[in-house]
Amino acid sequence: MQFESSEAYGQALTSDHQHKIFFIEDTSVKINALSRSKEVPGVDIKYWMRENNFYTVDALLKSKRNNRKVSVRSDIVLYLPPALRDSNGETYKVFTGIVDGNIVDEEKKFDVNPVYPWLDNKSFNKWFVPDGATEVLSLLPIEESLNFDFRKLALQKLICFLESKGLAKKKRIIEPPQIQGELFLSQDFIFCGPTCSGKTVLAFLISRRYGYQHVEASDFMRKSFLDKYGFDSDLSIHEFARNTLLSDPGVVANQVADYVLLMKPYRFIITGFRSIKEFEVLKSRLNRDDMKLVYIDSPLEVRYERSLKRARSDSANSIEEFERQNKLQQDMGLLEVKKHSIVILNNESLMSYLKGSVKGLITSDEYVSKLSHRALENKVFLPLEQVLMVALLVEEESGRTPLTTAEIAKVVERDFLNLRQKPNGSTLAVNKNNVSRFFNQKSNIHFKAVKSGKVIKYQLSQTGKSAALGVVRKFSGT
């Protein structure tokens, strides 16, 4: 079924959602010289762009007295449940943002903005020069482009309406709370260093043995990359990370700070920062003076051999590629971090490295209790996310991850339904549909999606492993 407008589409959807608020958005383009009885190309702009190139459009406009005027419009249709309708009984409300401009006189060739992919080289944005701008929308700096964001204009009107109805509040900026410290002397750690230097294995050991919350910064970068580009992008995640940090050094550090403030750990270890600016952003957000910056290093050839043994999907296939990735990390500011850090050299055996590092870093003799799988037999009710985390933690320790959603559901049904037992004794079932819906709704920092052929499988991220350990400790009392 095809709808003439976003309003018609909104009307068609309302029947099954009588008491819920929802909205849809669509974008349309009106090229004045081509629009007579209706807008051209209108809401079909994506298909129109595939069927036309700049030279055919340019020739067509020149045949129409070279009228290059154009309007780009965003329509947001908000469904109004009965409680929000006024006396005229309207079931929906439309919020519109319009930006006028011109089609550029000459097409330019450029790459997609790796940080802000909607500023691309495929959509109408590559030809559209907004009134008041000196360049096409796709080539404007992000701060300037937002001044001509038609969706932003419509969204601002929607937010104002929701605020007037008491359904939205402006976010208040508050000072971040001081995270409670331990009764005995301890410190939080920021482990930095090049790929395969030994940061993660040391962080996970301390997390498991001493109860530190381990947060891997690259998990947040990977999530941003997949949310924007998916699995099939030609853009390298290493290039994306470099460009992202050069554009906004605090983009990942702020997400990490939000996560730490949400989780409220007594102690934490963060791995994966690439610049001193990230450390400074985190320190200012968390208002802590006891964070110790540690740089873990190892010779490039040794790290490359470790990378080959690790055999991850995004690992370098040659020493030359590994060197290029190493250079990208240095470009992000990694060598500057080393100047401000305690340096640990990981040139010995794994056991010697771990034992020596723990002895030098951890001042407390207090271990957390060893995790027992018998504790997983307790009957409790956990949210689905936490059940999936616990199940994947156990499966990973047995070497059985990553898993498909169907496989994860089978594991939960077989071994962990006791974690879905309500106070009244009933058990809330978990099936493949529940698990698939959970992973399809949005990406989650605790999980890592892995593409195996055409199949997507899941395992815990490094951040997720530590969080899963925390879940087990919480309900088992260890």
UniProtKB/TrEMBL annotation:
One of its GO terms (biological process) is nucleotide metabolic process. GO terms for molecular function: nucleoside triphosphate diphosphatase activity. InterPro entries: ITPase-like_fam, P-loop_NTPase, RdgB/HAM1. It comes from the Bacteria. This is Uncharacterized protein. Keywords: Hydrolase, Nucleotide metabolism.
